[in-house]
Fold this protein.
Amino acid sequence: MRWMLAACCLFIVSAAQAGEPVEKLYATHCASCHGPDRLGGTGPALLPENLERLRRPEAIKTITQGRAASQMAGFSDKLAKDEIEALVGFIYSSLPYTPVWGEREISASRVLYGDPAYLSDKPLFKADPLNLFVVVELGDHHATILDGDKFEPILRFPTRFALHGGPKFSPDGRYVYFASRDGWISKFDIYNLKTVAETRAGINSRNLAVSGDGKTILVGNYLPHALVLLDADNLSLIKIIPTVGQDGKSSRVSAVYQAEPRGSFIAALKDVKEVWEIPYTGQTGKKKTFPVRRIVVDDYLDDFFFDQSYKHLISTARDSKKGHVLDLDTGKKVADLDLPGMPHLGSGITWDYQGHPVMATPNTKEGVVTVIDMQTWKTIKQIKTPGPGFFMRSHENTRYAWTDGFATGNPESRDTMTLIDKNTLEVAHVLRPEPGKTAAHVEFTRDGKYVLVSVWEMDGALVIYDAETLQEVKRIPMKKPSGKYNVYNKITRSAGTSH
Ligand code: DHE
């Protein structure tokens, strides 16, 4: 062990001697996204314990060419080969200290804003509270509460740094919970237009889920390797569950979701081939133990998705050409899926096609949307699109499924929105909301009559279309608007959106 450490340090020093010190290279090229101390920012933490599944040659390739389906650009024009090698040595070296974020730190971070007794239990505005959108603007770390009938902002407010993943609503739609990549969970009272509580649940977090009864929040972390349960009322800590596989190996969390029909949370581990189910029903008072049911799976779960009943979990690993279908009741795999590349988490949607439920997802490596019959688990069609996509959305009341083409930043496709006819499985239209500018992520109004699309640029906009005529209705300037979330579609778990 001592020898390994010494060898590792030697490698860093000698490679860095060729040019600038590696710490300086890191500070110049990497720190703004991955954090000055490698603990993560808009990009993930870069520590040996978080890079287990990335072999060094792959890490060199990633720094050189960039990483599909992330915001990681290639550095081949900025860094020499030996500088890239030095950086790889650096990120695989241990920190001089082990970052700790446990019970004490989580509890001490909690902030409560104001006295809940002064909060109104009716909205302070006239708009339909169920047809509001929460729009996340990544450009300057803000969110907007948007009236979904008039398409007028009600409030724009600052958020924590780099929100990521879907904000999640309480079952009645009054509260929205945000997660930032640096672990902050914020509870926002939509009726009172006010942040009411915040807790930092981790150093580098993935996403959060709100239990179907609205009582508990589950947060999945990359660092430390843990699941964190919070009380949804005041964000106080209930329990930390270290994510250690049954073989004793510690793991990051890929993502967490709540499966309301099952009364449980589902968490996927990223470095261990296990899915965990954690029931939240019947968890009261001293009985709040949140036991873990471990399900051993065939491959890592980098991305996953559920059918509408939450009986089946559909998953893929980043480098696999196959997806898997897991029966959550039996804990057994029931099918392999033909998926040409990893979709982004939560990109898939479902609808009825010729009397069968089907799921469809873009994928982040090739310009195809895969449509799969959810009874036979066979691929019905691979629909060609202009380029690899990140998100796909639709609505029960509309004939099209919309998907973007910006996963690889390809200039030919990144400004496109492809509309697939759900009845014919053909591409019906390709729109360019703003030619030459990235178009991303779609969400529908609660009635499915209008569609909101992001022009995902610093001088970007939210473009609102009539979902039937495809005419533009309004354009609202915004700073890199990313996800947008309709209260009604989310709390009713519309088949056309993520839950
Ligand atoms: Fe995301 C959702 C993981 C890159 C924007 N993305 C999620 C969720 C996870 C995830 C776990 C949670 C789903 C939920 O809570 O319902 N995202 C990942 C990755 O592993 C990946 C590929 C690499 C990474 O950087 O972590 C990745 N994601 C991105 C981006 O580069 C995007 C475009 C910009 C950003 O914010 O970093 C991006 N991800 C989003 C958005 C959602 C999301 C807008 C929510 C979509 C929704 O409609 O629910």
